[in-house]
Amino acid sequence: IRKATERPIIFLAHSLGGLVVKRALIYSSDITGVKTEHLRSIFVSTYGVLFLGTPHKGSDIASWGSFLEWLCKAVPKKALDTSDQLVEALKANSETLQNIDRQFSQLLENFHLFFFHEAKPTDFKTTLRFIVEEESAAPTLPDVERAGIQADHSHMCKFENESSPGFDLVVDGIQRYAEDAPTTIAARWTSEREERMTNKIRKAKEMFSGNP
Predict the structure, then answer these.
(1) CA-CA-CA-CA torsion for 151, 154, 157, 159, nearest 10 degrees?
(2) The pTM is what?
(3) Looking at the DSSP assignment, which residues form a beta bridge with residue 111?
(4) Does 116 or 38 have the greater pLDDT score?
(5) Which of 54, 77, 123, 163 has the most CB atoms lying inside 10 A of its own CB?
């Protein structure tokens, strides 16, 4: 979208998509280069994130193995080549997830967060199993909203109508964020522009002071 870098962003992310959002925000927050500063707009413009069933702390390795096998039955076998590595990375308290969690925790004060967890197990025909347990999908953190959705992992983000489980909770969260976001993000961009100008002036002074 053209000329929309300062438009407020509210992410709605399900499952592994939540980890992608966290990594994107971490990456964006670290950008300082002049040629890539447009990518920092993702961090500056993000007001909030609603996470649905995201395995922040990982999950039981057997659950993910069963889920990926079930999810990929209709996908060519080539697409499954990295499934073992993915399952390993998603194992509870894996090093990969700990690194993402540690880096994202330093950014928490910048965003409004809403954690949703699945309140019904997934039916694998031979067994019922939660893909992401509540303590992983909705960890208890200061000033963070938490709620359960009466659906399994796959269906917790699929709202057929206004009566679907979790619809009111999710929509209410989005509406509240959308109402508050413009003022907050506008103020954040004012501070961001001031900081960028200060840095440019400082760098210019350093460059000229180094000349004979």
Answers:
(1) -70
(2) 0.84
(3) none
(4) 116
(5) 54
